[in-house]
Amino acid sequence: DDENPDQFTAVTIALDGIAVIVNKDSQVENLTQDQIKQIFTGEITNWSEVGGADGTIKVIGREAASGTRDGFESILGIEDETVYSVEQNATGAVISAVASDPTAIGYVSLANVENTQENIKAVSVDDVAPSVDTVADGSYVLQRPFVQIFKKGSTDELVMAWFDFLASDEGQQIIEEEGLVPQEINIQ
Predict the structure, then answer these.
(1) Strands 120-122 and 86-88
(2) What is the pLDDT of residue 187?
(3) To which H or E segment does residue 146 belong?
């Protein structure tokens, strides 16, 4: 807060989808943004209210310091309003909790859904399935930028080498392999 943001250059290096996950046996395949907000703020508490089987919804989230939690809550505009049944300190713990409980719902980075063999599935949001393609074209709304910053006007060789690497074919391939959507990197 005490730094002047005009002193820095911000570079978006990738986009990350945030997938809303449910147990693979859940009847729910799609939720609207409003339904997700209402579930995570405690207004909707039973799956039958959103087309699922009768049962109390168990809301699983990340701890307060989590970047995924911050992104999820910020995108939906529900910061300081969420009501969690359980807060987990790791993505794997969220996935395991949802996989083991047919009444659970949570959120994780999209790449974690694609890379797991757990008993979970990502629901569509507003009839758009989360995928690298829907994040890239902007049709999937639960997404966040991954941003790196450096001191404006810097010519530090290491800083420049880092961004050159990120812009290289190898750097872009690593970003893709991590399940992120690469962005054109231009620090000029």
Answers:
(1) unpaired
(2) 81
(3) strand 143-151
Instruction: Please give the mean pLDDT across all residues of the chain.
Output: 94
Torsion angles phi and psi, residue 6, rounded to 5: -70, -10
Q: Phi and psi dihedrals of 142, rounded to 5? A: -85, 85
- Side-chain-side CA neighbours of 85 within 13 Å: the count stands at 15
Is the pLDDT at 123 greater than 90? The verdict is: yes
DSSP 3-state of 134:
helix
For residue 21, give Cα distances in angstroms to 33, 86, 154: 14, 15, 41
Task: Answer yes or no: are the C-beta atoms of 26 and 69 closer than 8 Å.
Answer: no
Backbone φ and ψ for 136, nearest 5 degrees, come out as -60, -40
Position 114 confidence tier, pLDDT thresholds 50, 70, 90: confident
Distance (Å, whole) CA 102 – CA 22? 7
How many whole angstroms separate alpha carbon 168 and alpha carbon 20? 32
